[in-house]
Amino acid sequence: MINLVILVFIGGAIGAMAREFLMLGVPNLSDGFPMAILVANIVAAFLLGLVTGLHKRRVVSDDVNTMVGTGVMGGLSTFSSFVYGSVVLMTASASGAAVAILYVLISLVLGYGAVRLGIKLGERGAPAKG
């Protein structure tokens, strides 16, 4: 039990650092559209799907699945920033509500697609031996 907590802790630190690097490196669009948050969440959705597919094939262990799926992806993706970005967009201008709705829809559609693609890629190939 304690080993899993440590794995999640380490994974969370890695994911949080990756998110911060994305926040620093991906500019927001001129209308305040939170592109960095969108990118972080879509990347995390894809990687979570990928590790899930690999875990189904037994290419990654339960421990790696927990560390990456819960820790790294939990630190990389951020629901609170997603919701906050939506609120900021809604109150930013007269067209803010439309932009916020577009942001939420894009996030959901791309996130769903990213997870499905990740799972598909992770499940590709023969099951791991052993």
Strand percent estimate:
under 5%
Radius of gyration, taken over Cα atoms and rounded to an integer in Å: 17 Å
Distance between the termini: 24 Å
Q: So what's the overall shape?
A: elongated
Q: Name the average pLDDT.
A: 91
Helix and strand sequence: HHHHH
Low-confidence stretches: none
Class based on secondary structure composition and strand pairing: mainly alpha
DSSP summary: helix tally? 5
Biggest sheet architecture: none
Helix content: over 70%
Beta strands, count = 0
Description:
There is one protein chain. This protein has 130 residues and is an all-alpha fold. 79% of the residues lie in helices and 0% in strands. The mean pLDDT is 91.
What descriptive keywords fit this protein?
130 residues, elongated, mainly alpha
List the helices and strands and how they pair.
Elements: H1 2-25, H2 35-56, H3 62-76, H4 79-92, H5 96-123
